[in-house]
């Protein structure tokens, strides 16, 4: 097996590795460098066509992007919408290895009350673990 691009084998090296196949399966671990880009792995076995796979690594986390199921809510004091926060790199890719704390704020006319897991929280509540939260209409009681 050989590796090129922005990655190394699990031990930090880039030299070709000989990996023994058991029951027709050979396994190798790789890790990315600190530079975003492509990692290309090529596997060769005598007399067979080469196998090649290309992976893309993300840039460092650069921004939080919020999405919502509905951008408009009726002012009926019961409607809800789902707000989801994503940690993205500078190219807009979700950084799945990132973790952090989201701080949600509510502002504007009819901004409502923020509910997390069935509990009403203040507009400056610190939220952990990058989960999806429900922003419900103003003064709704659960």
Commentary on this structure:
By secondary structure, the chain is an all-beta fold. It has two domains: 2-57, no CATH class; 61-136, no CATH class. Helices cover 0% and strands 42% of the residues. It contains no helices and twelve strands. It has strands at residues 2-5, 7-9, 30-32, 37-43, 51-57, 61-68, 80-89, 101-103, 113-116, 119-121, 126-128, 133-136. Strands 6-7-12-9-10 form a five-stranded antiparallel sheet, with no helix packed on it.
- Domain count, please report it: 2
Termini distance?
Answer: 57 Å
Helix/strand-derived category reads mainly beta
Question: How many strand elements?
Answer: 12
- The general outline is elongated
Count of helical stretches: 0
Give the overall pLDDT as a whole number.
76
Largest sheet geometry? 5 strands, antiparallel
- Report strand order across the widest sheet: 6-7-12-9-10
CA gyration radius, whole angstroms: 23 Å
| Poorly predicted segments | 123-142
Helix content: under 10%
SSE series: EEEEEEEEEEEE
β-strand percent reads 35-45%
Assembly state here? single chain
How do the helices and strands line up, and which of them pair or pack?
Layout: E1 2-5, E2 7-9, E3 30-32, E4 37-43, E5 51-57, E6 61-68, E7 80-89, E8 101-103, E9 113-116, E10 119-121, E11 126-128, E12 133-136
Antiparallel strand pairs: 1-4, 2-3, 4-5, 6-7, 7-12, 8-11, 9-10, 9-12
Structural key phrases:
142 residues; 2 domains; 5-stranded antiparallel sheet; 3-stranded antiparallel sheet; elongated
Outline of this structure?
By secondary structure, the chain is mainly β. It is built from no helices and twelve strands.
């Amino acid at each position: 097996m050989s590796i090129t691009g922005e990655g190394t084998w699990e031990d930090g090296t880039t030299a070709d590795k000989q990996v023994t196949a058991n029951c027709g399966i050979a396994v190798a671990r790789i890790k990315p460098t600190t530079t975003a880009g492509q990692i290309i792995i090529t596997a060769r076995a005598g007399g067979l066509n080469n196998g090649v796979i290309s992976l893309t690594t993300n840039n460092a986390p650069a921004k939080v992007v919020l999405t919502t199921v509905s951008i408009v809510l009726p002012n009926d004091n019961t409607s809800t919408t789902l707000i989801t926060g994503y940690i993205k790199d500078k190219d807009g890719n979700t950084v799945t290895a990132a973790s952090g704390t989201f701080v949600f704020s509510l502002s504007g006319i009819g901004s409502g009350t923020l509910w997390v897991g069935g509990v009403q929280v203040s507009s400056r509540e610190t939220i952990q673990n990058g989960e999806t939260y429900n922003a419900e209409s103003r003064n709704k009681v659960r």
